[in-house]
């Protein structure tokens, strides 16, 4: 997607989020949850879609940030804003530690290592009841104030904070993937052996991508603490990572907005179907299979493809037309 098109999409997002301000409090909560998990899915997309590292342990960074914000607030009375900064720092540091081990492997081994570390944290949270609350979870957190407005009492204030945080992350993420660092990560995804052969320290860049992704997941986890004011060990389970993977694939990996679209589809299906049918996961799974089989670029990739076809010939068609024109010119010169 060109910079101009990205700018148009960003402006459209801003307009939609402003329109969401006039919705009911319940609708604001749902939109805010979609935005949070959109950030979470975007952070995983940096690994899966842009660096080619399939992770099933990404919930560890989301969960550790949420736990940090709420535990500091409940046990030590630390302000939610300081807790948020501590949560993002903790998730980034944890990603650095876990990443140093995981980047030594690749493929299935990498995937299993990430899941093993996540399950290790999950087991630790289960046993450390005095801090985490175990299976009962941790309650009693009060979201901080913003300019004298309590986030705990005002759904509109929570929505505004989460929306602004989401837009900042989207802008930074779009800038990142268009930067030289983003090009290096895409090069590693496409041909790691070639990148290593021309002198790039591939493992260092993989570790850097892992830490950035962990930090972004920490941002999502901190915002989730403001929204939910409660956390349990389920947030660290590998199933949470699996849900994020579904969001990425549904929306379209290797795109900026795709994971957000996937998060919206997944959570709306979960919210609507779970209220009418206890087998909602079955229908989500069926839709996921259809997307994998028939929408290889995800829902967002399909939308962009259709819009591009309406606006003019596709890149492939333009290339064929150019090639045909060149051949015609050669034939004319020979004649």
Automatic annotation (TrEMBL):
Tagged with keyword Cell membrane: yes
Protein origin, superkingdom: Bacteria
Signal peptide, first to last residue: none
First-listed, main subcellular location of the protein, grouped into a coarse class: membrane
InterPro entries noted in UniProt: ABC_transp_permease, LivM-like
Coiled-coil boundaries: none
Topology relative to the membrane: Multi-pass membrane protein
UniProtKB keywords: Cell membrane, Membrane, Plasmid, Transmembrane, Transmembrane helix
Recorded GO CC terms: plasma membrane
Transmembrane parts of this sequence: 7-24, 30-48, 60-78, 84-103, 110-128, 159-186, 207-226, 246-269, 281-303
Keyword Kinase (UniProt): no
GO terms of molecular function: branched-chain amino acid transmembrane transporter activity
Subcellular location: Cell membrane
Protein name (database record): ABC transport system permease protein
């Amino acid at each position: 997607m060109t910079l101009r098109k990205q700018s148009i999409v960003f402006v459209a997002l801003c307009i939609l989020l402003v329109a969401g301000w006039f919705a009911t409090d319940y609708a604001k909560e749902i939109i805010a949850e979609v935005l949070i998990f959109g950030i979470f899915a975007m952070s995983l997309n940096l690994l899966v879609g842009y660096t080619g590292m399939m992770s099933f342990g990404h919930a560890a960074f989301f969960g550790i940030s949420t736990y940090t914000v709420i535990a500091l607030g409940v046990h030590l009375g630390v302000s939610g804003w300081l807790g948020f900064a501590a949560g993002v720092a903790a998730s980034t540091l944890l990603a650095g530690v876990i990443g140093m081990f995981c980047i030594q492997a690749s493929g299935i081994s990498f995937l299993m290592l990430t899941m093993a570390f996540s399950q290790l944290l999950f087991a630790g949270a289960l046993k450390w009841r005095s801090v985490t609350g175990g299976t009962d979870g941790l309650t009693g957190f009060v979201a901080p104030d913003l300019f004298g407005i309590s986030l705990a009492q005002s759904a509109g204030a929570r929505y505004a904070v989460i929306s602004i945080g989401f837009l900042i992350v989207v802008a930074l993420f779009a800038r990142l993937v268009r930067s030289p660092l983003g090009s290096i990560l895409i090069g590693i995804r496409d041909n790691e052996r070639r990148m290593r052969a021309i002198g790039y320290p591939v493992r260092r860049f993989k570790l850097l991508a892992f830490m950035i992704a962990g930090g972004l997941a920490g941002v999502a986890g901190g915002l989730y603490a403001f929204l939910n004011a409660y956390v349990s060990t389920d947030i660290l389970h590998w199933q949470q990572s699996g849900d994020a993977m579904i969001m990425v694939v549904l929306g379209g990996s290797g795109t900026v907005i795709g994971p957000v679209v996937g998060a919206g589809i997944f959570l709306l299906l979960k919210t609507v179907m779970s209220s009418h049918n206890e087998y909602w996961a079955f229908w989500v799974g069926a839709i996921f299979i259809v997307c994998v089989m028939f929408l290889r670029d995800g829902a967002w990739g399909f939308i962009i493809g259709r819009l591009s076809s309406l606006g003019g010939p596709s890149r492939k068609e333009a290339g064929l037309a150019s090639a045909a024109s060149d051949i015609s010119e050669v034939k004319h010169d020979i004649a």
